[in-house]
Structures are given as C-alpha cells and as structure tokens.
Amino acid sequence: MKYRKKPVEIEAVQFDYEKWVYMRHTAYPMVNGDVAPDGGMMATNPVIKTLEGDMKVSDGDYIIKGVHGEFYPCKPDIFKETYEPSGVRVDGKLLAKKLAMPTKHDLDKRSRDAQRRKGFL
Question: Number of C-alpha atoms within 13 angstroms, CB side, residue 95?
Fold first, then answer.
C-alpha cells in the first residue's frame, strides 16, 4: 500500500551560525551549545534536543517547528525539495501558537453562549 504525506503548514527559520554565536540566548533559544572562551566564531556543539535525541545544527540549516511544538534541523537542499512558502510570514520568529480566524459557526456559538449567560435564551 502507498501513503502520501499529509499537507501541513510548518514554521521554520534558517540558522545563522554567526548570529547564534553572538546572540545564542535570544536568536535561537532552542539551539544549545558552548562558545569558545574568546567569544569568537569557533562555537562548539550547536545542537537541538529533538524527540530522536541531540542533532547537530550547521550554518544554513533550517530549524523547523514540528506539529507538536518540537524543533529539529533540516538541511537546506532537503528543505527546498520538501517545503514551499505558504505566503504567511513569521518575521524570522517561530510563533508559539497559530492565530486562526474563527469560523461563522464559532462566532454563532459564542453569540448564543453570551445570550445564554445574560438570560436571553
């Protein structure tokens, strides 16, 4: 039997090694590792703790936020073969939650609930 991957929208940023060295606590908080004592470009062990264990991150890799909020690295060539832009921008930040527009059904339900609370229904 054959299976097809479900279409899913992901969030990702491209890892910038130099940015991580100088701002590693704020730029990519999901990437762990040590920086050389002089603070130079010889950072050691930039890794992401994934569900499969620690994975090394290289300059240019994409850091993907998975469907369960986990992070993992992806090589640029694989990323470009697997993903395409969805048109939604995240300004270089990985969002904590997606902002979804409520459906008409959700709005109607909220309105009915509000009327019930006020004693109209």
Answer: 12
Rounded CA-CA distance 34/21 in Å is 9
CB 85 within 8 A of CB 104: no
Written in H, E and C, the secondary structure of 28-45 is: CCCEEEECCCCCCCCCEE
Count of CB atoms situated within 10 Å of the CB of 20: 20
pTM beyond 0.90: the answer is no
**Model pLDDT for residues 42-91, shown as the tens digit of each residue:** 556 689 988 889 999 999 999 999 888 899 999 999 999 988 888 766 65
> Do the beta carbons of residue 71 and residue 65 sit within 8 Å?
yes
